[in-house]
Amino acid sequence: MPGTVHVIGAGLAGLSAAIRLILAGAKVVVHEAAGQAGGRCRSYHDPALDMEIDNGNHLLLSANQAALDFLRIVGAADKLVGPPHADFPFVDLKTGERWTLRIGDGRIPWWIFDGKRRVPGTTARDYLAFGRLLWPPRDAAVGEVIACKGTLYDRLVGPLLLAALNTAPPEGTAALAAAVLRLTVAAGGRACRPLIARDGLGPTFIAPALAWLASRGVNVGFGRRLRALEMAAGKIAALDFGDETLRLGTDDCVILAVPPVVATALLPGLDAPDEYRAIVNAHFRIAPPPGTPPIIGVIGGTVEWIFAFADRLSVTISGADRLVDTPREALTNTIWDEVAAVVRLGDANAPAPMPRWQIVRERRATFAALPAQERKRPGAATAYANLWLAGDWTATGLPATIEGAIQSGERAAALAAK
Ligand SMILES: Cc1cc2nc3c(=O)[nH]c(=O)nc-3n(C[C@H](O)[C@H](O)[C@H](O)COP(=O)(O)OP(=O)(O)OC[C@H]3O[C@@H](n4cnc5c(N)ncnc54)[C@H](O)[C@@H]3O)c2cc1C
User: Fold this and answer.
1) Containing H/E element for 5?
2) Which of 195, 387, 401 has the most ligand 1 atoms within 8 A of CB, as the residue to mutate?
3) Which residues does 96 contact at the CB level (< 8 Å), separation at least 6?
4) Which pTM does this prediction carry?
5) Which end of the chain, N or C, is more open, meaning fewer C-beta atoms within 10 Å of its C-beta?
6) Phi and psi dihedrals of 268, rounded to 5?
7) Which residue positions in the chain have pLDDT lower than 50?
8) 276-303, pLDDT tens digit by residue?
């Protein structure tokens, strides 16, 4: 067992590491630069909407075992909600078609043989052609493994992979796409149920984790930005927080759970992903019409997914670098027109007036899931005997997701607690 483990960063990777260390009986201190925990997975009060919202809509699937375990440990498993089956309503804005993809619960994909459950305009044979993406060659891009065109691609495979990789699928890392598909669609509907933090990411993931840690004597130190690591004799000897330098004891160790751009600045010589992709979220303060499904896939528009919460409609657009410089009002008008059409607010003669809105553009939402970036993802171990890395950008085998972040924290904690 180590001395004190210093966890740097209270995003999900850092929180998951801290929780696992406490469970292993270690002594833990968490240092977070910001004034709140959660990193890229957080809630905040938005003044334009005058309500609490998330920095971005986050979708989990029932296959996300590490995320579900995290919530079970901190007593918040009931806060992630979703339909009992893997049913996904879709709307095609170009044709006006509406359908519900119904992935059966079992592992055998009977649904692809059923015209009422699969994507309209596709045949069972189309699905089998995408099977080769399940075990792709190392280092390949998706576009080198499957043909990124056709009805099934446009209406299902493309949107799913874009959401999972946050990168245009043709250039995306095939191995990451395969990992997601094997865990979810190929594992059957029980692994694909969509799960949403109904009350927000903060109340679901972050506040319960902080309370769990606090009740075990671990209070996160906020406003504690690590400025530099001092190294000596192949180990981290001190943590420099600017106003304070913390000398480490011989058995103390460090888990660095910060974004890659921070990790590479603190650790010269570290190779890490350095290309990012944006995510745009638009939020409208309006109660959705009764019966609006919690999540709707949108094809043929700017909007990709619509999330319906009790008091707002929220939109997600992934791989959205093309939109980060579009004027806010113009972008919001486009998005609102599409949202109103999908959830049927107003009609062609009397379009629904736009409610209070907000647009959140996260330029560095995730690292770009490109083969060249994948090669740069480091493992948890470093050149220093008492330093481990965690974060969604480390080599988790998954794209940048909550699941990957939590798994990375668990792995770093297991190594540190040895
Ligand atoms: C808009 C958006 C939508 C997303 N949608 C989904 C989704 O639908 N499903 C999904 O699974 N994932 C989604 N993700 C990805 C998910 O949010 C991330 O993978 C996850 O939150 C990353 O956690 P992390 O702990 O690795 O990193 P971060 O959350 O980046 O945490 C790093 C922490 O380190 C702190 N820090 C930085 N520098 C220092 C320093 N010098 N000293 C101390 N602390 C420091 C930061 O303040 C931060 O709290 C989305 C992300 C975004 C931005």
Assistant:
1) strand 4-8
2) 401
3) none
4) 0.96
5) C
6) -55, 140
7) none
8) 999 999 999 999 999 999 999 999 999 9
